[in-house]
Design goal:
2 domains, globular, Gln_synt_N, 8-stranded mixed sheet, Creatine Kinase, Chain A, domain 2, 13 helices, 35% helix, Ubiquitin-like (UB roll), 6-stranded mixed sheet, 14 strands
Amino acid sequence: MSVPPRAVQLEEANAFLEEHPEVQFVDLLIADMNGVVRGKRIERASLTKVYEKGINLPASLFALDINGSTVESTGLGLDIGDADRICYPIPGTLSAEPWQKRPTAQLLMTMHELDGQPFFADPREVLRGVVEKFDELGLTICAAFELEFYLIDQENVNGRPQPPRSPISGKRPHSTQVYLIDDLDEYADCLQDMLEGAKVQGLPADAIVKESAPAQFEVNLHYTEDAIKACDHAVLLKRLIKNIAYDHEMDTTFMAKPYPGQAGNGLHVHISLLDKTTGKNIFASDDPEQNAALRHAVGGVLETMPASMAFLCPNVNSYRRFGAQFYVPNAPSWGLDNRTVALRVPTGAAEAVRLEQRVAGADANPYLMMAAILAGIHHGLTNEVEPGAPVVGNAYEQMEPSLPNNLRDALRQLDDSEVINRYISPEYIDIFVACKESELAEFEHSISDLEYNWYLHTV
């Protein structure tokens, strides 16, 4: 991808500044390997310079672990002198931050080499490399995310989260009733501000539903005919949700499994493909099982799912989310309008047939998650991979768990996958694995409270 024309970008910046004379600062944002948003805050007067020349940030930004420390084994830190690369604005992402007391805007960035070429370790550019393969097939990717999260109290109990008190009743919720409207009412002001804030930022969020745990909710994003933009929406929506909740004296968590006995947070994504010439959905069918393109796409995703798990579930905690009682599929399976499978094909209008991937956790980086799923779809289409018969009924009772159930095994399968390494550069996979292995090593060297409870006075 070449850098967008400066004249076009400057027109966007000048129009925004003219429309928003109150804006004092602009946050320049870039999502790291973990999907954590980092960057710089600049004064209003410097915005046009950013559009003209970009800003410098170190390449090591994409070698940070979950704690923000550089993992030197990636080779992106001291080995290259912690050198800078240049970040340019992403057109269409300049918007106000409705939660700020001092009027502030935000702008999403992407990293490039000093000669203007995309920087290989930016997850957004990792995804772009996969998307380009669909361009070669004459296909447009349509995608939409469903993002789950918990509202939590700003005060933890012994380091553990707890549901926030209702602004209406003053009580902490204990209900696990999915879709319960009364629970939406308890937090209505906060949740409505999230939807209104999304409108201000141009994020296509249209609905919030109560999920199956205390103070757990799901926000749905509209379909977007651009897979990369759909991921931009998911990253920015997560930031919006966190900040709006904080304004209401609450906190949030997108941790995959914050409570041992409750449902985890998932990140489902719906995907369909449009023929660029006709504009028609190639999955469209009155009988989806007979649609060859759909079957092959499903087959490819199922075949690559074990090797994709490290991108879908990238943290130690990610694997605590799985289990039939919490409706998280743990085997490569598919079915028609079946929520017990890993890859659901919603039935309904023929032209709306699509894939819904239901394995990933809300802690996944949307760009890397999307790249892995699209790699599977492309592999299936180009190799005509057949998925086998769809599961009818309860997949948990019919299929033994077979997906990697821990981060170490997931990293090994990713590293060894010939298919995924054809779509995502081995150089990038090496960096990702190095970061996650570093986190895993630190985790395994820690001693948990449970170990003290079990062993300190017993053995």
